[in-house]
Amino acid sequence: MISQLAGLNWVSVLVAFAAYFLLGALWFTLFFSKQYRISLGRENETLPNKPIFIVGPALCSLVITIASALLIYALDISSFSEAWKFSLLVGVGYLFANTVNIAINPNIPRPILYGIISGTYHLVGILIVSIILVTMK
Fold first, then answer.
1. What is the pTM for the complete model shown?
2. pLDDT at 85 > cutoff 80
């Protein structure tokens, strides 16, 4: 599968990554800012804006995008229908489930709310990534 790296359309990877990252920025600061802060038990606080909170998610989104591109190419996914099915499998089976699993710890006061907000972001994000990657393949 790693041999697929050379054959990737890297422009599509960068476009998909940018869309995923931008979605995250909007999701957590504009669309669901209040709910996200509530899930963290910080509803009356301003969340910190340190570089790690921008660079870290960006790197993670890039890794997810590259891994998705590798799978899409290796599995020869080439239609919107297949991209949708791939997104549901990866989005629910890995990203959403893993996000909820991470949220279930003593440091997250509202783990289910956090899991729904963050997991849904990843599900929508991977759908956008998959559609861009397949469209530009």
1. 0.94
2. yes
**Band of pLDDT at residue 91, cut at 50, 70 and 90:** very high
Q: Rounded to whole angstroms, how far apart are CA atoms 42 and 48?
A: 11
Q: Where are the domains of the chain?
A: 2-135
Q: How far apart are CA 78 and CA 44, in angstroms?
A: 46
Tokens in use for 25? 């920025």
Reference 69, options 110, 115, 130, 114; nearest CA is 130
Q: At 91, which amino acid appears?
A: G
Q: Tell me how far the alpha carbon of residue 123 is from its chain's centroid.
A: 7
Which tokens in the block code for residue 61?
């989104």
